Predict the 3D structure of the following.
Amino acid sequence: MLGFSSKQNASSVEGIPEGADDLTPPAHVAIIMDGNGRWAQSRGLPRIAGHKRGLNSVRKVTREAKALGIRYLTLFAFSTENWLRPREEVHGLMDLFRFYMRRECKTLVAEGVRIRFIGDPSQMPKDIQDLMVEAEALTSDGDTMTLVVALNYGSRAEITRAAARLSQKVANGEIEPADVTEEAISAELTTSGIPDPDLILRTSGEQRLSNFLLWQAAYTEFLFVDCHWPEFDEESLRQSVIAYNTRDRRFGGVRQKA
Ligand code: FPP
């Protein structure tokens, strides 16, 4: 597990060559932004203060991802299980999403960043659903990077919905059972058209996937970082991309000798 802080430089990560300036950016980085609550509680603050501070990291990391040449950045903002949190925290998070969508769209448009949402929007408050549609439309010309925000996202539910839709198509005689291929399942997921993540990062030291991109993560590299999300910044992302560059991805095959 990497425990880097923003103060460290590239050569201080074990096993990474110095002068790693010619980085190959992963095309798609997905992040489980964990540790907001602990960051706040350790400072005697309410949990929502951690989420608010986490929004600063969202801004920093979005800008840096674009600068590094990452084409897709996915952020796990709210899971299907997060409704179980105290009412006050859920309301605070919803207000934060409203604030973000109302305030940040102009910046995203100026930076050429397109926003897209994954998950099941139907359970979100109606005004947030409207803001989501608006944000996708406003930023739809963005072609430097796609920011994918997972809102009310749960991977098992997403796969289950895809299976149900394909079964219905078979029952209707629209497709044959043999048409239920990996591509057909991928096309029914809310991530349809988005390449699978090359790197999934989780902050706060926890090492689990928490129902995030289970299907899409078949060959993803994982990186668990020891700092809480509000402490994660531009340099942390750069360090993560450097660490990714040391990985030997074989996709089940063997390494070809040069
Ligand atoms: C997990 O930390 C974090 C969340 C459930 C919310 C993440 C949301 C934001 C950073 C707000 C803004 C996001 C966008 C994209 C607009 P936790 O609360 O589970 O932390 P803990 O494990 O320490 O309790």
